[in-house]
Design a protein that fits this description.
0% strand
């Protein structure tokens, strides 16, 4: 049977800590991008998209803080937030490899979001035992996302006039 069994108090305490630490890691790029724009933003800078990205990170962090009160009940928040962080990491890797973004992102954003994604997904699997097929689908989605982005770019270039 897949789902939630009894979860020990140590696991719950650990999940709360992971939730709070990962929330802080989602909040950190917002002020740090002002001090170190090359580590978090992409040229040419576009304030509207930067604001939307900051709002997304803020919402993910806030969601984790709210979920940390009752991690077992809110385990799905950990899972979905981990999936989002994994997809953001894949998109950043794509930008680095295909578009030649500033290599500083390899040392700042990729580890920050990648480790956050892994931590959240691992915490989720401690809180709930997800079905193995679901785990495979999530991993495949994150791993194959760069290929999807490449295909999207190819179609975009073919369809949208410049």
């Amino acid at each position: 049977m897949h789902g939630a069994d009894h979860v020990g108090s140590g696991t719950i305490r650990g999940a709360r800590i992971v939730g709070v630490v990962c929330a802080i890691l989602f909040f950190a790029p917002i002020p740090l991008s002002l001090a170190f724009p090359a580590a978090f933003l992409y040229r040419p800078y576009h304030v509207t998209y930067e604001r939307m990205f900051g709002a997304t990170l803020f919402a993910l962090g806030l969601g984790l803080l709210l979920a940390a009160r009752e991690p077992v009940r809110n385990a799905g928040v950990y899972a979905v937030t981990g999936l989002v962080a994994g997809c953001l990491t894949a998109a950043i890797v794509y930008a680095l490899v295909v578009e030649g973004a500033d290599p500083l992102h390899w040392f700042v954003q990729v580890p920050l979001l990648g480790l956050t994604a892994v931590s959240l997904v691992m915490t989720y699997t401690r809180l709930r035992r997800p079905h193995p097929v679901v785990v495979r689908i999530v991993v495949a989605a994150v791993v194959l996302l760069p290929a999807g982005l490449y295909l999207y770019d190819a179609v975009y270039k073919a369809v949208v006039p410049r």
